[in-house]
Amino acid sequence: MIKKLQLPLQTLNLTVGFMVWVIISSLMPFIKEDIAIPADRLAIVTAIPVVLGSVLRIPLGYYANIIGARLVFLISFVLLLFPVYYISVAQSMTALIIGGLFLGIGGAVFSVGVTSLPKYYPSERHGFVNGMYGMGNIGTAVSTFSAPVLATQFGWQNTVKCYLILLAVFIVLNFLLGDRREAKVKTPIVEQIKGIYKNEKLWMISLFYFITFGSFVAFTVYLPNFLVTNFGLEKVDAGMRTAGFIAIATFFRPVGGWLADRFKPLLLLAGTFGIYTIAAILLAFSPSLGPYTIGCLAIAFSAGLGNGIIFKLVPFYFQKQAGIANGIVSMMGGLGGFFPPIMLAAIHAATGQYSIGFMLLSQVALASLVLVFWLHYQDQMLRSSVGGRAVTGEQAKKMRK
């Protein structure tokens, strides 16, 4: 019974972690009314939770194998109580940055589930299972939609305090329902890193996730304030539109994993980067809200599919180092959400427009499309050498030797 509960429990854990992770960006239109934040610092304040949320994914993925997901989630939620309370009483930009940095723990828990959950299911279901877990991304939509509504009624400080209650509930749930007997992997972290850091597939997949998940995070933290400032939308309206973006990306994540279980994941991934390239070009030339909305929805669709597809590839190529590989790939995805808002803000400050930034995104997506085809070609060559059978990462490594 406990084992059957792990997928829904860990998915809800991720939902809560991501709800907490985006508190500041969700409430920024309200926060900046009370706390003076220079326009050129807004992107830094909203993006700062992504830093720790990215870097911590490596140790959390590793320790999910060592001590189990139950303890890692439980400890993470206990630690999150402190920055959430600190932000609820913050009165300066510095306090927001300090508290926001430690909110990153909420985003870092992503690597826990993608490391833990495949242990409970056969390999042919890993894409779908990780995709379902990834639906916990909806937590960002829940915050961007509900936090402005609550803040309108009760103030942003009291809204932040509500998250303390939510964290306390899930601390109890993980203590009672987490799997105490989860299979553990005791391979030292240095040995795991040595086993994968020279593998070019790791860094290619990291780049792919840098774009797919990075754009998801970047648009999540960038859209609420951008829609208010540049298109004159009401704060709640901007939050609802951002929540729609997140909901689409989240819904298509398990769809991407499900498709990757049944078809060739690399060819599916190539299709998503083709959409990315076109959508980013559209955003670069969208002076009005209508075309901009179409471009954002296309990004949401392709980000969701791509996120689901990529975490079918990770356990396939890195069976014995899944924890550390998941941590590295998911870290790169998180960092992909940190740099674009800052880059867009810098480009806007220098040129007065965002077009150059979106054109850069289109070119990186196009380069990734080429790399996906190259990776597919390599796999086809390996398969032809073993009579057409699929070759895992471990088998390919032995063959190269």
Written account of the structure:
This protein starts with a helix and ends with a helix. It has 19 helices and no strands. It is mostly helical.
Proportion of residues in helical segments: over 70%
Q: How many extended strands? A: 0
CATH architecture: Up-down Bundle
Number of helices: 19
Could you tell me the CATH topology label.
Growth Hormone, Chain: A
The unreliable regions are none
Question: In what range is the share of β-strand residues?
Answer: under 5%
Name of the CATH first level: Mainly Alpha
The CATH superfamily label reads MFS general substrate transporter like domains
Output mean pLDDT: 84
Order of helix and strand elements from N to C terminus:
HHHHHHHHHHHHHHHHHHH
State the distance separating the first and last CA atoms.
44 Å
Based on CA inertia axes, which overall geometry fits? globular
Major β-sheet, in short?
none
How large is the radius of gyration? 20 Å
- Please state the structural category: mainly alpha
Keywords, please?
401 residues; mainly alpha; Growth Hormone, Chain: A; 83% helix; 0% strand; globular
SSE inventory with pairings:
Elements lengths: L1 H20 L1 H12 L7 H6 L1 H7 L1 H10 L2 H20 L4 H16 L1 H7 L9 H9 L3 H17 L1 H22 L11 H8 L3 H32 L3 H28 L2 H20 L4 H29 L4 H30 L3 H31 L7 H8 L1
Helix pairs in contact: 1-6, 1-7, 1-9, 1-10, 1-11, 2-10, 2-13, 4-7, 4-17, 5-6, 5-8, 5-17, 6-7, 6-11, 8-17, 9-14, 9-16, 10-11, 10-14, 13-14, 13-16, 13-17, 13-18, 14-16, 15-16, 15-18
